Amino acid sequence: ATMPPLLSAIANAGRHGVLVKSAVVMERLGRVDAVALDKTGTLTEGTPRVTDVRPLAESGLDADGLLASAAAAEHPSEHPLARAVVRAARERDLRIPPAEGFASSPGVGVTATVGGHAVAVGAPARLSGGSDDGAAVGAAAVAGELEGAGRTAVLVRRDGVAVGVLGIADRLRPGAAATVASLTALTGTAPMLLTGDNPRAAARLAAEVGIGDVRAGLLPEDKVAAVREQGAAGRKVLMIGDGVNDAPALAAAHTGIAMGRAGSDLALQTADAVVVRDELAAVPQVVALSRRARGLVV
Ligand code: ADP
Ligand code: MG
Question: Cα separations (Å) of 236 from 42, 225, 227, 264?
Fold first, then answer.
């Protein structure tokens, strides 16, 4: 028997490395007319590297001490930035002390108790408290310098006091700009970028791939609001993301696609389709496959 077009399209999508979870999803993919992209782990490779380790002079920590305590707090986290911090500590052969009471907050950062100290690691603009002391002012200056250079700055606090800043850099996925161009051609609209990262790192990367609509500093619920806003304007939004922080937006979108290799379990479960092989270019290909299966010319 010949396979129904949507089932053949699912098989074809599989050959392109995309797991489409149902025939309904395969059909819906061809209807999307707007795209929202996450940054870290989606447009970028998601294997960022720590480029700067900057303890504050008054913290009493040296670079290794700062990195080791940050790595201890980040150790249980699956976030790409957390893995970068742990990797950097290992590369320097640092002993990563045990941590207790780990907690993470999507789009913000992590907290844990390390050697009797409460350590917090995360977005400088989001870690609250103590923002008027001298250490906080010093940390903000370092974070501003690193962000100005296009890095993601991560603040480290100990017992409520800023002790240092880490600079982290990620690379664009090869072909990211071409994928953005294909998605623009297919939907007739340029994708928008939704990220929890700082506006400067986001704007720099967006310019490199040809995205003009950039929303930065977003919490998970802000990503949902951006997707809903488009939906309310009558658009069928395709959301592409990888993180726990993307899961609500993946669910709120007309169709959600998760990046599979380094994607969080929650994102993979929530999404309608998963890019199993790590190629972003497969996304416009499956949209085109869906349109062909529905008998629309691409
Ligand atoms: P994106 O939306 O680009 O994928 P996230 O929402 O996951 O980024 O993270 C947004 C910001 O929150 C990061 O740029 C970082 O400053 C901070 N952050 C989140 N999780 C962590 C973590 N585990 N360690 C350090 N910083 C974190
Ligand atoms: Mg992400």
Answer: 20, 14, 9, 24
pLDDT of 128 reads: 64
Distance from Cα 7 to the centre of ligand 1, integer Å:
38
- Residue 297 has a pLDDT of 56
ipTM over 0.90: yes
CB-facing half-sphere around the CA of 80: CA atoms within 13 A? 29
Q: Which ligand is nearest the CA of 81, by number?
A: 1
Dist CA 236 CA 233 (whole Å): 9
Residue-wise pLDDT tens digits, 103-113? 999 889 999 99
Domain spanning 5-45+171-293, CATH architecture: 3-Layer(aba) Sandwich (3.40)
Which protein residues are within 6 Å of ligand 1, measured from CB? Answer: 38-41, 74, 77, 79, 81-82, 107-110, 121-123, 152, 154, 195-197, 243, 245
Q: Read off the pTM.
A: 0.86
Average pLDDT over residues 79-85: 94
For residue 66, the CA-to-ligand 2 centroid distance in Å is 25
pLDDT of 132 reads: 60
The CATH architecture one would assign to domain 49-169 is: 3-Layer(aba) Sandwich (3.40)
Spatial separation of the C-alpha atoms in residues 33 and 186, rounded to whole Å: 8
